[in-house]
Amino acid sequence: MAKQTRIQTKNQATILDAALDVFSTHGFRGSTVDQIANAAGMSKPNLLYYFPTKGAIHQRLLSELLTTWLDPLIEMKADGDPLEEIMGYVNRKLEMSRKFPRESRLFANEILQGAPRIQDALNGELKALVDEKRTIIQDWMDAGKIARVPVYHLIFSIWSLTQHYADFDVQIRAVRGGDVDPFDGSDRFLELLYERLLRPDGTSQP
């Protein structure tokens, strides 16, 4: 396969960035190639030169997203301090929501539609990683290093509480005021929440 020129690389990046805006706003079904072309500032035929279908663009975005989406959990180490490792994961997930809100909404839209384009990855790569880390967390609990809670639900709660700030940004701004950072105070709250939940003695640090 011939190496892409600088212009080709730039145009693909422009298309993908525009598509991320469109898909994260309208979902896959509600988005069109025309919308993406307009957002990218190029003609539809020019866009189709790089990506033959809307699905090809969407699949490319999802593939790149899944590569980075798993990284925060991969970084959790069995030989670290349990509370620090779990809080590190929470903070990394929260930071991902802060830095990549469009990607978070893209993923959420795909899940809400039944995950037709990433079901294999969910059943394979994601499940294998979660099961690996579940075993680590369960071992910490069995050793009395952290409080015993249902591990899958612990992981699900981390996903929910961190991604909420990106996926429901509009709702948060409506409640707190549009000019307030939706993430303001979230890191400290989550730290208190999970430390209180997971400390073996049931206490949290001030």
Helix content: over 70%
CATH homologous superfamily identity of the largest domain: Tetracycline Repressor, domain 2
Tally of separate domains: 2
Strand content: under 5%
- CATH arch. level architecture of the largest domain: Orthogonal Bundle
Low-pLDDT regions: none
Count of helix runs: 11
CATH class of the largest domain equals Mainly Alpha
Distance between the termini: 58 Å
Largest β-sheet summary: none
The value of Rg in angstroms is 20 Å
Task: Based on Cα principal axes, name the global outline.
Answer: elongated
**Element string (H = helix, E = strand):** HHHHHHHHHHH
The overall strand count is: 0
Q: Compute the average pLDDT.
A: 92
Secondary structural class: mainly alpha
Topology record:
Layout: H1 6-26, H2 33-40, H3 44-50, H4 54-69, H5 71-74, H6 82-99, H7 101-112, H8 119-142, H9 151-167, H10 169-176, H11 186-198
Helix pairs in contact: 1-2, 1-4, 1-7, 6-9, 6-11, 7-9
Summary, kept brief:
By secondary structure, the protein is mostly helical. The protein contains 11 helices and no strands. It folds into 2 domains: 6-60, Arc Repressor Mutant, subunit A (Orthogonal Bundle); 70-198, Tetracycline Repressor, domain 2, CATH 1.10.357.
